[in-house]
Design a protein that fits this description.
With about 600 residues, the protein is α/β, with parallel strands linked by helices. It has 18 helices and 10 strands.
């Protein structure tokens, strides 16, 4: 199953499903959530009490001067209510902070962990820039969603309920009816317009991810862009995506202005009607000045967060879209997965067998057909053949980056599909043809083969790979940064770092995929001797182009068109006069012509 994460967001979004996916991350902090909600409820009760105390103060101070007295209890209650509202609100924020940050951390960690469980097919399809934006927006969306749901929506709904009850209990039913009617109209208007606007935000996210993916892709291939003088082409391609994003952003802002204007009109109408009713009842002597202040304070106190509620709802919808896009990464198909209770491989003598293996990256284009290769424990087998013959696919299958389509690969008779992946890979070391290094120091990249290794062990591995003297000659030595993807080192230097890293890992199975292709002849001979030494008594698979590097292999397998066409030792294959003998003759002629030149 191919999964791409740079295309449009799903059209069948399910916000409820997104919330269900998020809930388990909150459950780890259930007691903090309960405490924060308790603080929130008490803070709102205190906030609603403030206008009641204010009404009593004003009414007691409105009596004739001869009867005037200081309303001590009302003033104390007013001050205490305001203090509790503020303190409990801050306590709620402090308690809930751990919930938000803990949930964000857990989700981000799980997404990162899941990405490494996905097959190589997924990572070849992905666009790194767009995917990184999806994760970044998703984690931010979780913080926003939790913050404003607990700190804004729930308190506002609670306050609306309490204020409505107070108005119905104390005053004419019209006050509660107008208040609730205004709120209902406001919410319905906000929901309808926000749903209409959501498509613009989703479009902005898609276009933003695409533009970012293309920009990062171009920057990662900086040298290629320069080689072909395509700076203007890349600028135009990036700007084309930005132009589409700009058009979508303008539509988003225009629709936002329409929404804000409508919300303002609804609130203004509701406030005006409430004040008309209050003025009527004051004239009729059924309400005091304190009652008017109480109603006005309630309405102001209620509509202020309600006005903000529109913004919060819009942002929560956007956050849900961002979170769901990130959660699609968690739902990506695990093409290569451990079976329940998979046993762990634990051996220093590994016999490998490719048994009638068939494989295709795409069903319409088979890569391997009925491939059978035996690599006895402690022996070296080399695989040669033209480009596209399927040589490097063997190493990817052995690592279980993919599972075979037909046949089986076994280690000591056990099908590798039945083994725990991490234990299998712990037994294999590889020096790839295209070595990619982390943007860190030379020491870090060598030590990556075994992060718990001592410095002495790291330096010994570097000596074995004939790179120690070069490193010590650098101003910063082993602390020298290698740059992104190791671009500050030459191809040969990167390859020697990769060899040192594999030597440090010290695995029972070795794979050399054109391991010395980027080295000069002198260094290659020295490295070949070292590789021969470390290969001794290890099960070794060599994928080679230069036949001179594998003449001492125990067995040489010749592949063509995804099939094994010849097998034998170097002498046997040359004597047969077949495909290998022809390749050997051609390479000898090329080397002779180079020497003659």
């Amino acid at each position: 199953m191919r999964t791409s994460h740079t295309g449009p967001a799903p059209t069948d979004r399910n916000d409820l499903q997104t919330l269900k996916t998020l809930l388990p991350y909150l459950w780890d902090f259930k007691w903090r959530v309960a405490l924060a909600l308790s603080c929130m409820v008490l803070a709102k009760v205190a906030a609603v009490s403030v206008p009641l105390y204010l009404k009593d103060i004003i009414d007691q101070l409105s009596v004739p001067a001869t009867l005037l007295a200081i309303p001590v209890m009302a003033l104390v209650g007013y001050g205490a209510a305001r203090l509790l509202s503020s303190v409990l609100g801050e306590l709620r924020d402090a308690v809930f902070a751990r919930v938000i940050q803990g949930a964000v951390r857990s989700v981000a960690r799980n997404v990162f962990q899941h990405l490494f469980k996905l097959s190589l097919r997924f990572h070849l399809d992905r666009q790194t820039g767009g995917m990184s934006r999806d994760i970044e927006r998703g984690t931010k969306g979780i913080g926003f969603l939790l913050n404003f749901t607990v700190f804004n929506i729930l308190p506002t709904l609670l306050e609306i309920g309490m204020v409505t009850v107070i108005l119905m209990h104390r005053y004419a039913w019209e006050f509660a009816a107008v208040t609730l009617g205004t709120i209902v109209i406001y919410i319905v208007f906000t929901l309808v317009i926000t749903e209409w606007r959501t498509v613009f935000r989703r479009s902005m996210n898609d276009l933003d991810s695409k533009a970012n993916a293309k920009a990062i892709d171009a920057l990662l291939n900086y040298e290629t862009v320069k080689y072909f003088n395509n700076e203007r082409y890349e600028e135009a391609r990036y700007d084309k995506n930005l132009a589409a994003w700009e058009a979508s952003a303008v539509k988003n802002q225009v629709s936002l202005s329409l929404l804000n204007a409508g919300q303002g009109a609804i609130i203004a109408t509701g406030v005006t009607l409430i004040m008309v009713l209050a003025a009527r009842d004051v004239v009729n002597h059924s309400m005091t000045v304190g009652d008017v202040v109480l109603v006005a304070t309630f309405i102001t106190q209620l509509y202020a967060p309600l006005n903000f509620l529109g913004f919060v709802y819009r942002e929560i919808k956007h956050s849900l879209a961002d979170i769901e896009r990130m959660f699609t990464l968690l739902s990506a198909n695990l093409e290569v997965e451990d079976r329940p209770g998979a046993p762990r491989l634990d051996t220093r003598q590994a016999a490998i067998r490719f048994d009638k293996v068939g494989f295709a990256y795409d069903p319409s284009r088979p890569i391997l057909r009925d491939v059978s290769i035996d690599i006895p424990a402690g022996r070296t087998v080399a695989v040669v053949g033209a480009s596209g013959a399927g040589k490097s696919t063997l190493s990817r299958l052995l690592y279980r980056f993919y599972d075979v389509g037909e046949g089986a690969i076994t280690v000591n008779g056990a099908d590798i599909r039945a083994l725990a992946q991490d234990s299998l890979r712990a037994h294999i070391g590889i020096v790839p043809q295209d070595t990619v290094l982390f943007n860190d120091s030379i020491y870090y990249n060598i030590a990556y083969g075994r992060p718990d290794a001592t410095r002495e062990e790291v330096e010994e591995a570097a000596r074995s790979a004939h790179i120690h003297d070069f490193v010590m000659g650098l101003p910063k030595g082993y602390d020298t940064p290698v740059g992104e993807r190791g671009l500050k080192l030459s191809g040969g230097e990167k390859q020697r770092v990769a060899i040192a890293r594999t030597i440090l890992k010290n695995p029972p199975i070795l794979i050399f995929d054109e391991a010395t292709s980027a080295l000069d002849s002198r260094t290659e001979k020295a490295i070949q001797q070292e590789l021969a030494t470390i290969s001794a008594n290890r099960t070794t698979l060599i994928i080679a182009h230069r036949l001179s590097t594998i003449v001492d292999a125990d067995r040489i397998v010749v592949m063509d068109g995804g099939q094994v066409v010849e097998q034998g030792s170097h002498r046997e294959l040359v004597a047969q006069g077949g495909r290998y003998a022809e390749m050997w003759r051609l390479q000898q002629e090329q080397e002779d012509s180079v020497l003659a030149g």
